[in-house]
Amino acid sequence: MQIQMPRRRQKGETIIPMINVVFLLLVFFLLTAQIAPPTPFEVTPPDSAADQAARDQDVLYVSATGELAYNAARGEDVWPLIEAGDPAQPLEIRADGAVEATTVAALLKRLRAAREAGAQLVVNGG
Q1: How many independent structural domains does the chain possess?
Q2: Model confidence over 16-70: pLDDT tens digits?
Q3: CATH no. for residue 64?
Q4: Which InterPro entries match (predicted)?
Q5: Residue 86: inside a domain
């Protein structure tokens, strides 16, 4: 007498290993991502033809109305922090494109007295 064994049904492919890989990638990217602080107010830099990207450092923001922001300080409170910074490092300025040129010129003159390295004005590449 010959007894036939019932055929085993093939199991479908499991997606558990793929879920594990995606989860590990998600954790990796979350741990290695650098979270940038939000800007204190909306700034639209002027346009430029140069192809040099801005470096990541402390930034002095200038609004269209001439309001200043540096780290957590606002207005005239930014100057003690700027003067206490490293004088050999140029300060990055992100000014709105609509700010008056005389305001930026006065700001650069005051920065020249506070920092020997001066400042770098960030503009949009064109």
Answers
A1: 1
A2: 999 999 999 999 999 988 777 777 888 777 776 665 554 556 788 888 888 888 8
A3: 3.30.420
A4: ExbD
A5: yes
